[in-house]
Every structure is written in C-alpha cells, then in structure tokens.
Amino acid sequence: MAEQDSHRQHISGQFNQELETATAHMLEMGGLVEKQVLAALSALLELDSGDAQSVMSLDKAINAREVEIDDECFRILARRQPAAGDLRLVLAISKVLNDLERIGDESSRVARQAIALSEQAEEAPARPWIQKIAAIVIDMLRSALDAFARRDAQAALAVARGDEEIDAQMAGAMTALADAMREDPDYVEACITAMWALRSFERIGDHARNIAEYVIYMVEGVDVRHAELDAVLDLLPARSRPE
Amino acid sequence: MAEQDSHRQHISGQFNQELETATAHMLEMGGLVEKQVLAALSALLELDSGDAQSVMSLDKAINAREVEIDDECFRILARRQPAAGDLRLVLAISKVLNDLERIGDESSRVARQAIALSEQAEEAPARPWIQKIAAIVIDMLRSALDAFARRDAQAALAVARGDEEIDAQMAGAMTALADAMREDPDYVEACITAMWALRSFERIGDHARNIAEYVIYMVEGVDVRHAELDAVLDLLPARSRPE
Fold first, then answer.
1. B243 pLDDT tier (thresholds 50, 70, 90)
2. What are the distances in angstroms from CA A48 to CA A36, A42, A117?
3. Whole-model pTM?
4. B225 shares contact with chain A (CB less than 8 Å)
5. Which of A119, A147, B111, B155 satisfies CB 3.0 to 4.6 Å to A155 for a cystine?
6. Cβ of A150 under 8 Å from any chain B Cβ?
C-alpha cells in the first residue's frame, strides 16, 4: 500500500514536472517573441534594414519552437490524460503558442515594412503614434505572459482593458496619415507602409488580449472569449476581482 | 467476457458518436462563417449598409458557437481521454474553431468597411481586385472545410497553394490604389477603406490555409505548419501525394 502510494507520488511528480517544463518552454518562447516585437519596432523607427533582416530570419526559429512545444503538449495529453485544471493548463499553453507564433509573424511583417520604408522616406510617417501604440502593445504582451507565469487572473483582466486605448490611438494615427497623403501625393507610398505597420502592432495587441483571456480560462475555468468585461467581472470569484 | 466486449463496444460507439457530433458542429459553424464572408463581400460590392449590419450582428452568434463547440471538445478530452488519431481529431477541431471565429471577425471588419465606404464613394475602389481576391479566398475556405469533412490530405495540400495567387493579386490591387490616391486626393479615404477590406480578405485566406494544414495534421499526423510545400510532399505517404 505504502509502496503503491510512493509509486503514485513518483508518477504525479513526473507529471507535474512535465507540466512545468512545457509552461517554461512556452514562456521562454514568449520572451523570444517579445524581443522580436521590440527589434521590429526599432528597425521601423530607425529605418534599419539590417535589423529588419535579422527579425525576419529569426521567425523560422520561432515557428519551429511552436511546433516543438505543441508536440510536447500533445504527448502530455496522450500519455498523461490530464483532467480539470491540468487539462486546462495544457490546452491554454497550446492556444497561447498559436498567438505567440502569430505575433512573430506580425513582427516579420513590421520588419518587411521597415525595409520598404527605408527606401520610401527619411523618417517613418506617424512616428509618435507608432511609438505610443507599440509601447502599449508591448506592455500588454509582457503583462499577459507575466499573468500566465503567476496564474494571475486579475492581472490578465487588466490586460484585456488595454484595447480601448489602442483603438483611440489608431483612429488618431489614421486621420493623421490620411491628411498627410492628401497634402503630398509623393508621400502616399510611405504612409501606406506606415499604416500596414501600425495595423500589425494593433494585431499584436489583439493576440496579447487573447493570451490574457486564456490565462483567465486556465485559472478560473471561465471562458471569457467574446464576453463583455463587466460581465466577466461578475463571473469571477471575489478573490480575482479588481478592488 | 462477451458481456465486457459488448460493454466496450457500446462505450466506443458512444465515443465515436461524440467525435462525429463535434465534427458536424464544427463544419456547421464553418458553413455559417462561409455565409458571413459571402454576405460581407456582397455588402462591400453593393455598398449596402443594411446587409453589413446583419453581418456584424450575426458575429456574436458565431462567437458563442465557438465557445460551445470548444467546450464540447474539452469534455471529450476530459472524459474520453482519446489517444493517437482521435486525439488529433479533437485538437484539430479545436484549432479550426479558432480560425473560423477569426474569419468571422474579419467578415465583420469587411462589413464595417462597407458601411464606411457607402459614405465615402459611389463605388468600391479596386472593385475587380476585391471580386477576384474574395473569390479565391472563399474557394480556399470551402475546399479546406470540404477536405476536413472528407479527411482528404491531398485536397488540403491544394488549398495551401492558393496563397501565391492571392499575393500576386494583392500586389496589383495595392499599386492600383496607391495610383488612384496620388491622382485624386479626394479619393484617399475611400481607397484606404478598400485597402483594409482587401487586407481582411487576405487574412481570411491565411486562416483557410491554417485550416487546410490542420487537416493534413489530423489525417497524416504530420505537422506541416511553416513547412515548405515541397518538403511536405516528401513527408506524406504516397497515397496522399498529388499525381
């Protein structure tokens, strides 16, 4: 009996180890992706096509990591057949991987725009908006991954709120770019390029929000995708509600 | 012994039934999403803001379906603990749901552009490109879902090839729109709106490609995300290779 218990503890210790390793791998990939976003932003602001090339060439490594870690999740599901909270953790990792990979794609897109822009203009159009929107988005991504690491549903909820600020800034940026194009037809190409880059940062914000939602799902077992934030607050246990 | 076998067969029959039901629900949601894409296209070409409103209001129902069917997948994983091919099927359904939901979001975005455009112009700029790109994309989505229903990895591979045609058409559309904006500053707003709409159709094509990749993964157990198509062909068993 005692032997059986110790065997069970051994198995369950291995299982927890596997879950922790998969989580660590995903967060590590998150760190890589975060660096990609920062590097893409810097390439865009400095119009540095060398930096942009590095971002694009690193994307393959990130894609490979997604497939590897997702395979790790598959093997845990197949061999360990986790239930309840453990199952939610594995599924959350798998879903977050997908968003991270797409953030990597968007970073490559920004890098491609940086290269185009370096041939079209002396300076990125709408530069102050790019800086502001990218700063919000990078903060959302960092906070969402941090909330995952700490299993913090309340912090994850706060990330989901970053969206509105992005919408406001994007509207301002689009008006400024349209005005600039109307005033100077020679500036049309560069402004279009800046628009695509801004749109990519906006998408990165969407993905950060998705990651935050998976954290809430993992911690609370409440699926908050597509829910209004106030309704989500009512669903959460009191301990997760913001003061 | 015979009784146990019959019990097992009964359980396994129920299990297969659950897998088929989840697949059917996902494909049904795929049908709804396909209709949304068509309706959004029609709203954009006809500049019909009434139709556009219907697309946007149906999006909530699609989001709710995603959460319901994903929950169905979660319950199958938790209770049935499927292995190998069955596990791949459930995970593929869950991942496809995510892409379908995002196609729904892109359709809503196109609908929003249709409303904006109805106030900015008499006719959608770059209309022939919109029609052509949307037609390719809708065909890709339909074929990807069809390949899922028939577990047809070869058909899924063909879908992944639609991408290159979209890239070529998008490049043409962007040049035409930039020229139009340079020629007539009053046309800038409408051209920007058309660009966002085209970009949404392009994204729908990306999601259709993702769905096709999950079909190959499900059928063959080969993860083809991010792989070059020719390398994929080498990975597949001979029966799945195109002639």
1. very low
2. 14, 8, 9
3. 0.89
4. yes
5. A147
6. no
